[in-house]
Amino acid sequence: MEPSSPGIARHVKEALLWALLAFVLALPLIGVETFPAVTTLGLRPRFGAVAIVVAVVFVARLLLVGLTALRKRRIATLIEKPVRPLAGLASPRVARIVGLLFLAVAIVLPFLPLDNRRYLIDTATVLLIYVMLGWGLNVVVGLAGLLDLGYVAFYAVGAYCYALVAQAFGLGFWECLPLSGALAALFGVLLGFPVLRLRGDYLAIVTLGFGEIIRIILVNWASLTGGPNGISGIPRPSFFGLPLTPTGGFADFFGIAYSPDQRVIYLYFVILALALGTNLLVRRLRRLPIGRAWEALREDEIACRSLGINPTLVKLSAFGTGAMLGGFAGAFFATRASFISPESFTFSESASILAIVVLGGMGSQLGVVLAASFLVLLGELGREFAQYRMVVFGACMILIMIWRPQGLIAHREPSVRLKADAAQS
Amino acid sequence: MNYFLQQTINGLTLGSIYGLIAIGYTMVYGIVGMINFAHGDIYMVGSFIAVIGFTGLALLGVSSVPLALLIVLIGAVFFTSAYGWTVERVAYRPLRGAPRLAPLISAIGMSIFLQNYVQLAQGARQKPVPPLISGGITLVPSDSFPVTLSYIQLLIIGLTTVLMVGFSLLIARTALGRQQRACEQDRLMAALVGINVDRTISLTFVIGAALAAVAGLMVSLYYGVVDFFIGFLAGLKAFTAAVLGGIGSIPGAMLGGILIGLIESYYSAYFSIDYKDVAAFAILILVLIFRPSGLLGRPEIEKV
User: Fold this and answer.
1) Hey, is the C-beta of B158 within 8 angstroms of any chain A C-beta?
2) Model-level pTM greater than 0.90?
3) For B274, phi and psi rounded to 5 degrees?
4) CA distance to partner chain B, nearest, from residue A315 (Å)
5) How far from each other are the two terminal CA atoms of chain A, in whole angstroms?
6) What digits encode the pLDDT tens for the residues B256-273?
7) Topology of domain B2-290, per CATH?
8) Is residue B184 a contact partner of residue B30, using CB atoms and an 8 Å limit?
9) Measured between alpha carbons, how far is A131 from A357 in angstroms, rounded to an integer?
């Protein structure tokens, strides 16, 4: 059953060529280390790193060939579907159970008697922000098939809207939340209107530019946004009008002892509720005609047009909905951190959110949770990992597109089935 | 008047660089029909290789400016072309024929990868370039505001002109150019008449990367610093240039690049330097609203 030896020789030769290519690529950028010297740069060689890269590429190429050959043989002999990792999670029933399990863990998490509870809740809050952003972006990328590379701009609009309105008019978080979402949606519609008539590629680059423009405006319009220094002292949310402060607030009203943890836990539940609301909204929207139009448009625009769907309006609604959800998340981000600056809204943030959606599987809610957990945990493991995080994510996006374009656990089942089909199953 | 003239020279310099990058975008779009988001980062890789090359030669004691330029030019073009080829081979070729969103996402992944890879390998700090060419020609002597054309600007505009002429000849006269134009019109038909489509597409990426490498080299000399993030904005503006000129059209990319350079230069001179990046973006939106096919492009008809 072993592949014949000339085949192996050919694969080794090909792997050697790839290793040579890796050597050429690595030589100038990895092989030479620059360091600041007196007048100009200093250079020092780093041949060890080049050797590692070359070796990794060689081995990876051989493994890849071996795996492909193995898989081909298995398909040929057993006539069986290739084993898909996490394929079970794609079935709706399993996904529902796992989702409920996640939810149960999320609800009891703040009450677990652990030593590093505070740290755990903080991390979980950050995770939930990413989950919510992922779910929001999923409407745009996963359901409607529009590539939005500047999602962080809507997040920023929501955050700054809350911060500015709250400080100027003394309004609370809950009053400002709809406002933030509405403003972000408005921005989305205004931006989408000229662009969505055109091919999808243009949308990608325009949103990329828009994200950068919003950041430039935030940095330069210092009289309104505080410039690079940002805005601080953003009010915290209240619990039905009761502030979570040491005196005269939540603790006094219920007659319990005040603890700073109360605010952290409260914030955690706020984002949990927001995220769940997002999830519910998206799931319901999917069942509505508009949601079905989104998915139909993703699959075939020309067919949709011939069925009388107006592509521009449908795309605009998806884009606006996604922007609104981003705005909500932004308002929460501002109130949690109590300080915002343009630094939180860079392109790499957009890229992270997009990576979450792509890795998790476009259109899959559970996949987004898993991918967001992966991203946040990788960042928490340590600085070295955080440095490699985006490199790994970029590479993963390419690999996923090549091997599993539908994402790790996505399922592209039709949302609607014919009656006869449903009766059979 | 002198001020205006000076801004025109600055704008032409900038526009030359945008034009060189824009050719890469427009060529790839013409043949493969996708936006190569990683192209801006290819340009950034080119400028890093140039910086390392110049620094290395300075340390080795190569003092002849033309020699140093030539060596670094060849080196940067060679290594950057290798990057361009690999990007196509790894991230785009396996996705040929996939749904349209897939290569776009793959391209974004490649862009993120390249940016962070260079940051990881070379550090996040700005890298200074040893000053190689200084001085210039005073075109209009004046006590208050002399108009000068620095030697670097002269080099950039001159080299760009030479490259563009050479490149136009390559497309119009050589066998490779004919193959490229054939693939652009109909890839299947081109394959049927015996053109190696994969090879032609690979070479398109290599040529685009080579032009971007020249742009990266010149930018590192012009500004004197590079960092891992320069590809992002430059790529955005070069893409705007390609759209303004009409995406898919090579003379359009050159024209668009020069227009964007001039507009940016005038805008930062007469309005506000803080918002100069906004100007290019506003043009992109306006072009997309009023003339999506650009100045020299043909309107795109989608066939079923």
Assistant:
1) no
2) no
3) -65, -35
4) 15
5) 40
6) 999 999 999 999 888 888
7) ABC transporter involved in vitamin B12 uptake, BtuC (1.10.3470)
8) yes
9) 9
